[in-house]
Amino acid sequence: MSEAKRAFVFDMDGTIVDNMGFHMKSWIEFFHRRGKDIDRDEFFRATAGRQGKEIMRAYLGAHLSDDEVAALNAEKEALYREIYGPHLKELAGLSRFLDEAKAQGVLLAVATSGPPENIDFVLDGLKLRRHFKAVVGAADVKRGKPHPDVFLKAAEKLGVAPADCIVFEDAPLGVEAAQNAGMPSVVLTTTLPADAFSQYDKVIAVAPDFNELSVDELLAPATQQ
Ligand SMILES: O=P(O)(O)OC[C@H]1O[C@@H](O)[C@H](O)[C@@H](O)[C@@H]1O
């Protein structure tokens, strides 16, 4: 490993946990309560990685006040935590992978579009917070993915140059955000197959879970990847 500090920056939903099906269920129920139907696949591709407030305004009206958006978000995310709670589990191989990365001196961060309550729910619920030197969420940046803000903030908090960070993502908009931040990505195919990411540059690996990923291979010089 070179002298420069390296970092792994993890998306949370769909990457640390395989929960996007539960987010989808909660969105379907949330919109059903309002007499609206949504198409699962179309909705995932259009929204996964965006912040709740952006999704609310896109689907329910740009006129919504901040207070109205906050109340709607609180309802949707409480629904999600209620239905995912009994299934809460880290993606296969994650803890081993994090331990290996730390043993190699890699700094670790979480960069999610989720709100603080969802971050606590996953990181504290699974006792994972101790692994991460920085945790950045929707409350810390203005714009969700595909804007690069959340990844750039994580790199800044870690004190690592964006080009020395590798992002782990499951959503096309998240990979696009990493690309916009100047960071290569590893795609986890928890939610979509590999071909959904073919239009993006700098995808250096694709895997179904962390058991299939090697820290050493990911840290190998870029010319070998
Ligand atoms: O950035 P992450 O961790 O993938 O989080 C994205 C998700 O954040 C959630 O809070 C939203 O309700 C989801 O619809 C969204 O996809």
UniProtKB/TrEMBL annotation:
This is Beta-phosphoglucomutase. Gene3D superfamilies: HAD superfamily/HAD-like, Putative phosphatase, domain 2. Keywords: Carbohydrate metabolism, Isomerase, Magnesium, Metal-binding, Phosphoprotein. It comes from Massilia terrae. It is an enzyme of class 5 (isomerase). It catalyses: beta-D-glucose 1-phosphate = beta-D-glucose 6-phosphate. PANTHER family: 6-PHOSPHOGLUCONATE PHOSPHATASE (PTHR46193), HEXITOL PHOSPHATASE B (PTHR46193:SF18). Its EC number is 5.4.2.6.
